[in-house]
Write the structure tokens for this entry.
Amino acid sequence: MRFDVVSIFPQYFDVLDLSLVGKARKRGLLSIKIHDLRDYASDPHKTVDDTPYGGGPGMVMRPDIWGKALDDIMGPESPGSGMKVLAVPTPSGEPLSQRTIEGLAHSSDQIIFACGRYEGIDERVTEHYRQRSDVWVLEYSMGDYIVNGGEVAALAVIEAVGRLVEGVVGNTESVKQESFSEEGLLESPVYTKPATWRGINVPEVLTKGNHKAIERWRRDRALERTLKQRPDLIRRINGHDLDIHDRELLASLGVLVSPTYANFSMRLAQPDDAQALATLAARLFPMACPKDLDRQSIQRHIDEEFSLDKFTHMLAQPDTYRIMLGYVSISGSTKELIAYSLVENISLDSKPSHPEVAKVVPPGTAELSKLYVDKAWQGSGVAGVLMQSSFDDIHGLSPEAPAVVVSTHERNKRADIFYRRHGFRKVGKRTYNVGGQNMSDNVYLAALRGHDIN
Ligand code: SAM
């Protein structure tokens, strides 16, 4: 990769003899030539600027001097000889990003920097070089602030592009895993020895050598940090690039990324939520039924189990029935109820109503009897966080409750994967009736926080 830098302060670039870039220059991986713009000025004072047309403060850099310098470095237009980049730092350019840096590193092998000073460079310079077929003019900004000249901006790009050139950075993995790399996330926090410093410990997981757990921890912290510091980056993430753990983590932080970006919130249902719940439950239940179940049976079950009366009855007994609601809001729209979970029998002397279930669980086991998410939001992470929030609620209400049991249709593979991933294990079967038809469920059990049920 070849860099040419034109500036009125060539000494500014002495730092490019240092560190990784300096080493890469010595090894011939990077070629960097610094040109003094004043060498192209013809008057005795080597003047490169003049007063602005139209008046106003400061001075503007002359196009004729820049033209001489840039023509000399670029040579005549030669279509088909490969693209040169004319990189012009300016506060009015496009904000610099890792994507632009990658584009520069991969699409050109010569970058020429035009470092402005004073009020900047006469506009006709970029206009002229844009007309050349062998030049890509990139006006870029380092951010919404002003420095005195383009030199620091050129240094930043030389370092950022240079480290993507093969061989410049020894550990290629470290380049891939950094903030803004392919994944578009900030990097997780990093730690080194000593393990305790000024009373602050390194996170325990990093000291235990469980690589899978470490990877997960790093990923979680990266997601958390990105959401907190740069929510704009999370908004740009493609939901398909996140696994279900990632989505659950973001959902627990109030954000969904799949199928679309949305805010997510949860709360315990109150008595006046009965109608909304009955409507939602009647809508979601058919979607969760096996395909071979007939319509009448489904409707009969809805009428019996999901009526307004039924929910009104349950919501009047918050010590026995706990219903957690999940809402989404897209681009600030009003919240829409898209999910609910229902946990029953939250007391040590109560038993799950189904005898086959009661038989295989410890006394005082609560029952997750409903966990429904609107089809459009399935896979978004909502189910996992809603369930976790229900379990936290039970724990707060009844810390002695040892476990929670859940039953799902025996052919429901998704549910099997989901519950196992959340620490449930299969403990038995139960049969039951939907609108006159017999069905068979798997029964799963998981310990609640602070309990060991093995
Ligand atoms: N009058 C200009 C304006 O308001 O946009 C600012 C000129 S600045 C004092 C002089 C030079 O510093 C610019 O021509 C540019 O090369 C460089 N510069 C200043 N801030 C910059 C930024 N945020 N990004 C890139 N280059 C910058």
